[in-house]
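Duplicate of earlier report; Disease resistance protein RGA3 input re-posted below.
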Amino acid sequence: MAKSIVSAVLEKLSSLLMIPGEIKHNFELALTLEEEIGKVNAHFQDIQSVLQDAESKQVKDANVRNWLKKLKDVAYDVDDVVDEWNSEKLKSQIEKEQKEARNFPLLKKMRSSISSFTFQTILYYKIASKLSGVNEQLDSIATEKDRYKFGLEKVVEEPRRLITASFIDDEEVYGRCQETELLVNMLVGVNSSGGGLKLPVISIVGMGGIGKTTLAQLVYNHSDVECHFGKRIWICVSDPFDEIRIAKEILEAFKGESSNLVGKDNILQEIRSHVSGKKVLLVLDDVWSEDATRWEQLKTSLKHCSPGSRILITTRNEKVAIIYGTTSSNLFLLNTLSLEECRSLLSRRAYYGRTREESENLDDIGWKIAEKCQGLPLAAKILGGLLRFKRTREQWQNVLDSEMWDIEEAEQDLFPPLFLSYYELPLALKQCISYCAVFPKGMILRKDELIKLWMAQDYLKGVRCDEMEIVGEEYLDELHMRSFFQDFRGDELDSGIMKYKMHDLIHDFLLVLMKTECVMLVNHDSEELKVGLSCERARYGTLIRKEAAPTEPNIFRFRKLRSLLIDSSYYDTSSLRLYLPRLFDQLTCLRTLNLSNGLFRNSIEELPDEIGKLVHLRYLNLKNNKKLKELPESLCGLCNLQTLNLKWCDSLKELPCGIGKIINLRHLENDQTNLSLMAIPKGIGRLTNLQTLSLFVVMGNSDTSTLGDLQNLIHLRGLLKISGLGAVCDVTEAKKAELENKKGLRTLILDFTILNGLMSNRWQRNDGRLLEALRPPPCLEELEIWWYSSPTISANWMMGLTKLSHVSLGYCLHLKSLPPLGKLPSLESLYIGGMSRVEKVSVEFLGAEREEILAPSSSLESPSSSVIAFPSLKHLEFEFFDLEEWEDWMPLTSREEHISIMPRLCSLTINSCPKLKALPCYVLHNTSLKQLNISQSPILSERCRKETGEDWLKISHIPSIMIDSVRIQVNCSSVEEFGVLQFQPLHRCSYISLITILLLNCVLRQVTWDATGKKEGDWSMLCLFVSQDFFLVEVDKFVVQRVIERRCDRSSFLELVNSAFFYVKYFLLITYFLSSSYI
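Output:
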């Protein structure tokens, strides 16, 4: 970390080198500044050359660690000075431009110039004074450096790497049976064709200590593998990748003796002759190098072996596996052990030599220590070996209560393998992963938020301004491929947002690296400060508070903090508001500040003016502060601010007028504020770095922003919702927005409501022409149109959106016919609701004229030329909300065999369509349909009634049918309705698979989800845990709103029914769908 910080400071010092030239009016001050800046630069240049050697020696030398800590402290201070200067210079430039734009009188301009000149002179003296103090510290650090006799970078000692062999004691291995069988089958199975490759490469990928080498040894020594391959070779590659050494070892394995050959070409030629006609398994263990050229020459010499030969690689880096030629089907991502397996591995060592009675006495603590290992075999072995020599319960309890970084054996044996992975990282990635120590253990990290936090710490520098997020994604992907992160991909409800999690032991390792820079405070009790207690110059802080009493945070002791994250899952931010003025006044080095409210119950009501003192601030998160009504104008002086998160601040009425001064703002996340936020101030168009503007509100008056202000925001991406379009009278303003030039937009929501209360005659509006002018980019994926007032949607651009996958049309109250959406080739989800004047859905909805669809098909015409409407549609929902006009969904009358309509439709929902007479045959006969939901549509409900309905036989093939909230069972068993309940446990059952839990019309009183009964009480969210997955039922005021479906196998189902108990009032219906089509 020290090297990366010093390198960053040296890059930034160049901006200070220009200061002396700007103050020629004060020769003495200019000379002083030039001298101080030059000394700082010289010191850091001198120290930088030995930093790599120093960082490698700090592992064993506490004095070197302390020296590096002092150096980092000074480097951080210099960075603050440089950033303060750049910030003030930028603010001065912004103010100058605004004054010129306002055309102030000459006298006022002169007064302003004098004031600015005075302020800058004071700032110059302040910088000179700070740099003088820095140089005094650097003098001492440079003197101390000479005592350690550091070498230059080229003589750096690398971390120790273990040499592995193929031998293994099977009795020392627990678990991995399934993984072994899968890998053996990939090597020797009848289906292991290798994807047509001459010499397939199979890679085992996972973090350090997870058991990659052990698994490779199990496979290598498996009887089936021994019989299948004529020659098996094990090579420990490690780093660096020495292709000559590896080639010699391969050759010696064939010859059975050492080789005297010299020269790479001679060795490779000899290998080629030996492999010819032989079925070979080559294991390359512990591969690190990403240099493909060295590997390709070696691989070429092996390609003359017999078909069926394989190469098996173990690596921590998925990128290495891909470089070495591993296809996705041959990539084996190794997971951690189960708790039972981990406990067995730990017990074998920990209970060695103990009597049964002694073991049973320690068993309960042993289970908890096994949980501490988080499924990592290396951790289980190390802690098991440690516990073998701990004889009493008290000693075992001490191990359980200790953090991993406080256990000497863990520091000596567990962390070095993780340090190897860290050591291999480039400087930029070391900074990024080290920052993650600030998060609470086990925290799920959103990809987009993590990148913004890195950006706020200036870790993504050195690239074009508009590419920082792209570089952040590349860094995160690289760290994920190197096994520093596990990925948790979001489902449909969170729009595919990628989420990540670190293994607990990687988190512990990072805390060791950052223990002098990272502080975690819990409950404001000095005895519970977790990390960095002795270092009040810590730079990164996390505040976790679980009690309700408002006590003064100890965080004020750490005045050098650059990042402060408040764990909102515990912390009541309403009590924090008492200390915000002091926090803003004292913690002025902050780059990152998270004040989001995760409890929902309380909220910050007012943001103090002192927020303007945080001149370095780049990330401010105020999410979920539901009582926050306004933001102070002083916020607009934070010219470095990049991210402002206002999501779910649904009392926020307006943004500060000067928001256009925050010219570095890149992400203004203000979605879910549309019910309160009534306007966007003028000046938003000056924020040309904006990439996120979730909500843009149009008021239709001269005091606020207009659609034309979107013109220069060419970097917008992701979601954009434009609200208040009903108030727009000038269509040219919509054209000025130039939405089609915003290539990064993926979701566009157009809301034609009028927000200023002037509900003019809707027939006098020009929504149709306005919609045509709001042409989005062709890469758009989601489009929603709400409260549109014209009778037709004739926007020509809509049919050109070939990547559009989701469309919603809602409350278009004057719309008489639906647009021809069947032409959209990528449309997967379609919602249509609240259409009061639509009487029929005709053939035009399918995207073609009736004459075209029903035209005779030529006998020479190929099947592929048949008309296909809605070729990709999977989900279709009509929800008309008691608006009773829709009567006909027009069927096709002839030659339907030539027409393909909705061939991939999976689910259809018809809600509140009381006059709809029937579903067309192309829906009823659709064999891809899996779910049909009809409610508040009496005619359809009668036609689809089980056994007796006119259309029952046509829909009985559909696995899941719900009519008026009653699930109709088709060829499956069911648990009967429970009726009115106060308490109903679910006991052991023999069902094959649990597919759905449906809770209808129930009021949640109490839930216990743990078999031990630890979690009890009233909850606003009901979670039913099933193995690694979970069911989630969201509850609003204890009324169930929706259920997210998850699948589980039989064992998971039994785990659920033995541990989940429901305490409900009124009515509860639980239905199990066991149809084999789901399995």
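Residues 562 and 647 are 23 Å apart (CA to CA).

Merging into the original ticket.
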